[in-house]
Automatic annotation (TrEMBL):
Belongs to the DapB family. It comes from the Bacteria. GO terms for molecular function: 4-hydroxy-tetrahydrodipicolinate reductase. This is 4-hydroxy-tetrahydrodipicolinate reductase. The gene is dapB.
Length: 270
């Protein structure tokens, strides 16, 4: 009996899913059990005894996929973005009924992107102004990107904790969209351009200086080490984990308080 992790990919024929199929097939400690596309039956996951499903589909598909997985005790490693609070709550409810099952939702599996979010969080309280610009290929369904939304949320949380004043902005008249999306008081701008893959800049400003953090994903293979890390860790991480950093920075990840299972298992990250 092989002790390899039995892994399926949902969205297997997509830009990310096809990369994930290759990565799982190349991993010595994993066995690809299923490569499913739109319309394929999720029952294949149970008939192949899948342990972990990687979801790289679409905002309109991911919750139904996960409700099936969690309902059958199949762990999820989710890259699909476009999440809302209401949909996260539905996922938490499903996890409540399956206490041994883990789901990781990572808006970005790129190590550099995770570090960008961490560095932005650390820098946030030192600057009067901050805005986020994300830049992607023109096939992307959601805007702003999940990474940019999470980056802005982490920045806003850090600024709140530090007691920072609202950002200066004298705008009194603007065309719709001119100041970007407002994510907890942080403007987020989305560029869609042929020739791009996935890129983000965080711009901090104060008197006499601008501090910019930039990350560029040049191809989708760059996300795969993070995807495989998620697969290897999720089996021993019950409940909902938000963000790959909880598996990357073990020394800093909040311990799962005993018996603090939220719905089902401790939830890490907001
Ligand atoms: N976390 C991360 O690091 C990253 C996350 N992403 C996210 O991953 C998602 C996919 O991105 P990308 O690969 O570019 O998108 P693509 O459109 O290239 O791929 C999505 C694939 O999923 C398929 N699909 C849709 N619904 C289902 C379903 N219910 N079951 C199975 N397959 C389904 C689509 O089929 P069809 O072609 O028929 O529509 C398509 O083949 C997006 O949400 C994106 O934001 C992307 C890059 C990195
Ligand atoms: O759609 C993409 O391509 C990407 N989506 C993710 C997001 O929405 O943050 C991650 C990365 O930016 C690529």
């Amino acid at each position: 009996m092989s002790n390899r992790i039995r892994v399926a990919v949902l969205g297997a024929r997509g830009r990310m899913g096809s990369e994930a199929v290759k990565a799982v097939e190349a991993a010595a400690d994993m066995e690809l059990t299923a490569a499913l596309g739109r319309g394929d039956s999720l029952d294949t996951l149970t008939s192949t005894d899948t342990q972990v499903a990687i979801d790289l589909t679409h905002p309109d598909s991911v919750l139904k996929n996960l409700e099936f997985c969690v309902g059958h005790g199949i762990h999820g490693v989710v890259g699909t973005t476009g999440w809302s609070g209401e949909r996260l709550d539905r996922l938490r409810d499903k996890l409540a009924a399956s206490p041994g099952t883990g789901v990781l939702i990572a808006p970005n599996f790129g190590i550099g992107a995770v570090l960008t979010m961490r560095f932005a969080q650390q820098a946030a309280r030192f600057f009067e102004s901050v805005e986020v610009v994300e830049l992607h290929h023109p096939h992307k369904a959601d805007a702003p990107s999940g990474t940019a939304v999470r980056t802005a949320q982490l920045i806003a949380e850090a600024r709140r904790s530090a007691g920072c004043a609202p950002q200066p902005d004298a705008t009194s008249t603007a065309l719709d969209g001119a100041r970007g999306a407002d994510v907890d008081g942080v403007p987020v701008h989305a560029v869609r351009l042929r020739g791009l893959v996935a890129h983000q800049e965080v711009l901090f400003g104060d008197e006499g200086e601008v501090f910019t953090i930039r990350h560029d994903s040049m191809n989708r293979g760059s996300f795969m080490p993070g995807v495989l890390l998620g697969v290897r860790r999720i089996i021993s991480a019950p409940g909902l984990t938000m963000g790959l950093e909880h598996f990357l920075f073990d020394d800093e990840a909040p311990a799962a308080p005993a018996g603090s299972a939220g719905a089902s298992g401790a939830e890490q990250g907001s």
